[in-house]
Design goal:
about 500 residues; alpha/beta; Alpha-Beta Plaits; TIM Barrel; eight-stranded mixed beta barrel; 14 strands; about 15% strand
């Protein structure tokens, strides 16, 4: 009996390195790279373990090289080297994408012009001037985070001119941002870092869906000219601009949304996400929210989400959307992807309560994909805890609107994401704009090296789809593939 036990112990010890190799192999399928720290003493097992470690290290190195190449291409094409902000090309892409989207709410374009940049450069020298520009850019980023929504875009257009596009921003909010940023920039003169005052002129111009960038920049230039002649260094709106469509009745929206959320009367709409390769079958459906106003008119999320955010009701919205989506899946087939806010996923106790209906229903849970915007990702330790929680319920996590934070690529391998959805600004006219094609090809190689699917957002032409298909992207969504439609309570309509 003692001999049998001893034999089993020896067998277990001998099999331990083999079991770890199995663990390594399975980890690779989850896009994780594990190396065996304690090599076995048996020469034969030791050589196999060393070879396995070498292969894993090589795979990890190849992935990291592709990730670095993608980030380098992004920086060269879309980032201003002095400030680290998006450059004019990136700003134009984002503006064109938002301007063409009917659900983009009206808002404001904030223009900033640093005064006498050439004189500063001559007085201070290029290196110190570049350092000052970087400091100013950080001040602008701080103001953006404090006063603008996460969908806003800040960029350096040229020289001393910067622009901040703020969808969903009301006139008073835009004015508050301008005054605060003007005050912060002026502090550089008060502390002696710049000898002259004013440091910058600021102007604001209302915009809406369908506006042309050229026209807005001309209006912005006029606003800056008015600001330069103003003692406050920032200009009020011109008379013909004063009644901005972004300024709405706060009381009306508060009562409307509070009632709809309390009574859980949101409407679920679905938009198909299809495979790029023929026959283009449906991979899943994206869940969208709409509401009806008092006259029964349907209002898309782009118009009421800014008010949800103003009132601090992101969590309330997520709770209702998750409840209605899980209720739908309990009666219907299909896989659904639902966006979540960063504030909701930080509360793991709340997430556990929201996902409770999936407990004991792994088949249903596997048809749930929660999505986060790349700019709403929590810190790494919070994200890993969220991924572990979703794993307990067999749910998946995907990233949407991906395109600006490519420093995240190095972490993608260990997160085990369902997919990356590429922001539509990189997809628009990709069949005609080579810089986008080169960039997405590099991103595809990086993602493909860890078997991570890429899905293109806002695909609207056959030329765009053909180009994406030729690159090898797995999926696409947009008007070309299907408009959003009301959630059908019929299993035959979802695949």
């Amino acid at each position: 009996m003692g001999g049998a036990a001893f034999g089993l112990l020896i067998g277990a010890l001998l099999l331990r390195p083999l079991n770890y190799m199995v663990k390594q192999s399975l980890a690779i399928t989850r896009r994780e790279y594990l190396t065996q720290p304690d090599l076995p003493r048996t020469p034969e097992f030791r050589r196999v373990a060393q070879a396995m470690n070498l292969m894993v290290s090589k795979l990890k190195m190849l992935f990291e090289e592709e990730a670095e190449r993608s980030e380098r291409l992004r920086q060269e094409a879309y980032q201003d080297p002095q400030t680290g902000l998006p450059n004019r090309r990136a700003f134009e892409m984002q503006f064109n994408d938002k301007s063409s989207d009917e659900e983009t709410p009206p808002g404001y374009l904030i223009m900033i012009r640093i005064q006498d940049l050439a004189g500063l450069n001559q007085q201070l020298g290029g290196q110190r001037t570049d350092s000052l520009l970087e400091t100013m850019a950080k001040m602008m980023c701080t103001a953006q985070k404090l006063y603008a929504e996460q969908e806003s875009v800040l960029a350096r257009l040229r020289g001393g001119e910067f622009a901040m596009l703020c969808p969903g921003m009301a006139e008073k909010e835009a004015h508050t941002l301008v005054v605060a940023l003007s005050h912060n920039l002026e502090s550089l003169a008060l502390t002696g870092e710049i000898d002259s005052s004013p440091v910058a002129a600021l102007g604001m111009v209302p915009f809406k869906h369908g506006d042309s960038l050229k026209s807005l920049l001309i209006q912005g230039d006029h606003a800056l000219t008015r600001a330069e002649s103003s003692p406050l260094h920032h200009a009020p709106l011109a008379e013909n601009e004063a009644n901005s469509p972004a300024e709405a009745d706060r009381h009306l929206w508060f009562n409307r949304l509070d009632t709809l959320l309390s009574e859980e009367r949101l409407q679920l709409f679905f938009q198909p996400v299809c495979r790029c390769a023929p026959p283009g079958d449906v991979l899943h459906h994206k869940v969208l929210a709409r509401i009806n106003d008092e006259q029964g008119n349907s209002i898309a999320a782009g118009f009421f989400l800014p008010w949800i955010q103003r009132f601090g009701w992101n969590v309330r919205l997520d709770q209702v959307m998750v409840k209605q989506t899980l209720d739908y899946l309990s009666r219907n087939s299909g896989t659904l992807a639902l966006s979540m806010s960063g504030s909701t996923v930080l509360d793991l106790n709340l997430m556990t309560q929201m996902l409770a209906p999936l407990k004991g229903h792994p088949e249903r849970a596997r048809r749930v994909i929660l999505e986060l915007d790349e700019n709403q990702l929590p810190e790494t330790h919070h994200l890993e805890a969220l991924i572990a929680l979703l794993g307990e319920y067999s749910c998946q996590l995907g990233l949407q609107h991906f395109g600006g934070r490519f420093n995240l690529i190095g972490n993608l391998a260990q997160w085990g994401l369902a997919y990356l959805k590429i922001d539509g600004s990189y997809i628009r006219n990709i069949d005609r704009e080579n810089d986008k094609k080169v960039f997405i090809e590099a991103l595809y190689r990086t993602a493909n090296s860890i078997d991570l699917p890429l899905i293109a957002e806002r695909v609207e032409t056959e030329g765009e789809l053909d180009t994406l298909r030729g690159m090898g992207l797995q999926g696409a969504m947009g008007r070309l593939l299907g408009e959003p439609f009301p959630a059908p309570d019929n299993t035959l309509l979802l695949k």
